[in-house]
Amino acid sequence: MARDVPSAVSRGGHGPAYFALLFIFWLLTGVSIYPLMWLVISSFKTSAEMFGNAWAFPESWQWGNYLKAWNAGISRYIVSSVIVTVASVILVVVLSAAASFALVVLKFRGKAIIYTAIIGGLVLPPEVSLFPLFKTLNFLGIYNTYFALILPYVAFGIPFSTFLIRAYMVKIPGELAEAAVMDGAGPFWTFWHVYIPLCRPILASAALIQAMRSWNEFIFALTFVESESVKTITIGMMSFANALRSDWAVLMAGLVISVIPIMVTFLVLQRQFIGGLTQGAVK
Amino acid sequence: MSKLEMVSVSKTFGPVKAIEDISFSVEEREFVVLVGPSGCGKSTLLRLIAGLEDISAGDLLINGTRFNAVPPAQRGLAMVFQSYALYPHMTVAENMSVGLRIARVDKAVIASKVSEVAAILQLETLLDRLPRQLSGGQRQRVAIGRAIIRDPEIFLFDEPLSNLDAALRLQMRLEIAKLHKKLDATIIYVTHDQVEAMTLADKIVVLNEGRIEQIGTPLGLYTAPRNIFVASFLGSPKMNLLPGRVTGSDSGTARIDLDIGASTPIDVKAERLSDGDRVTVGIRPESIAVGAEGSDAFLPGVVSVVEQLGGQTIVYVDIEGGSPITVIMEGLADITTGTAVKLGLPGSALHVFDDGGEAVNRIG
After folding, report:
1. Of all helices (H) and strands (E), which one includes residue A99?
2. How distant is the Cα of A269 from the closest Cα of chain B, in angstroms?
3. Which CATH superfamily is domain B4-233 in?
4. Which CATH superfamily is domain B240-353 in?
5. Which of A84, A272, B152, B282 could form a disulfide with A204 if both were Cys (CB 3.0 to 4.6 A apart)?
6. B29-79 pLDDT, tens per residue?
């Protein structure tokens, strides 16, 4: 849940330090927003205008760039990215939540070892597993399918989201699970009716982080699929750049389109996301 | 109906023995309070009964049937947790009906049971609220409601009042006592608060370091504690304990010289005491007379602190060469700090404990 800034902090510092901080924040905001603004503005120019007058607003707004980009095939890449991202997000969140629940609530031997093994995945760079994964995907006959991306994304997403969700679940009083046991609930009921609703903020955070990872992933997408119909937006944009050759403004429009879904997702989940990351920081 | 028995029950957590060879029984409709200091194993014992922990050795019998391996929900028990354990995202009505919904009871039956229990606990107007919109006492009532609605054979209460402020605790204590009568329920209740134990219980089980120190009625334990632990645990303010030595024992009467000077004859079964034995003499604060002539022993002292509580006055008296002695006087006593007093110790009110802390039985 988003919390108000305590009034002492918001009102208190109007000295030089306050303005210095304000300046730094505005600077950081500018540094973050400027490339995005440049991208959006350029996407409405002609290519000649883009290179000729890089800093100015377009003389006439070229809405047609977006139509061209869409018709040039970007829609296909977006569909692939949406499929791969949605599938991997659902799987990662469900599996990580279930694993976290088991690690926190259920009693069984070897919990610590299992948790260490899962978290161990955090230190494994995806690049080192490229070749073995390539062989495995070929062996399974799923090379060049959506599964060739979904499975590795899930595998590499689970450690961090389990780390995140487990840390949150640990703070839920164990008596809630015990009360459910006394009421005759099995583990699945407790998981679904108690822990999942209470973990919504952190599940939203985990979903958003995984969505961004899957949407922006490049190496696996470059290696494990080759058909145009399966390529995701990151790889698609490369082909797109080659296909368009010199039509840079249309490429910019394509890039804007590729960013929109993840931006919308972030804006929708933003409140939950920030709540999830700050929950427990202030009692 | 339900009779619960714990037979030589032990519980170990790795190398730590939390419960050691405990046996007691709970009769039908009895209100049994497990009481003891923090870490004495009382909550563990309750969790063993509930089935939330496995029993390491011994038997849990309900109506003569061994229940060690029966899952918690099938034991016919309902538990009220210290933290209430209400589901924060469910309304009062949903919280109360969880057990019935899991058991797939008919919706109409659930609705009528919820309103019936809500009426008992005066929760009718709160059924649509979330726990965070309730006061501490209301939450506690919802937790109790969740237990009642399942018609359990036995209620388990784990320190249910410890999160409430003093006034509310008193009120809820009364409500629980009334509820016990109203429901004719069998209750096992854990607390570290000896006042709760004394006021609520039909039977008290005093626990210390995983073992039972004594089982009995509240008054029985108060008037005849088996050892120093029980004597000093029950009663507020605590029993005064004065070290001393047996100087003469003859035909059932022992003379005891207190280390702080007084000497008194006490009728005890003297075969357990010999001349020269170290003993501890205990006396309740309300049994001490201030300035009373004719008592069996006197202790001179100086009043150090006076606490006027209205209905009674608690006086702390410094004794030369010993720990301060606490005295309870009825009403608003006219006494001030610095006053020199003589404390009278009536022999009939004295408890004698041997060197090992065990009570030496009195005659008669």
Report:
1. helix A75-104
2. 20
3. P-loop containing nucleotide triphosphate hydrolases (3.40.50.300)
4. Nucleic acid-binding proteins (2.40.50.140)
5. A272
6. 999 999 999 999 999 999 999 999 999 999 999 999 999 999 998 999 999
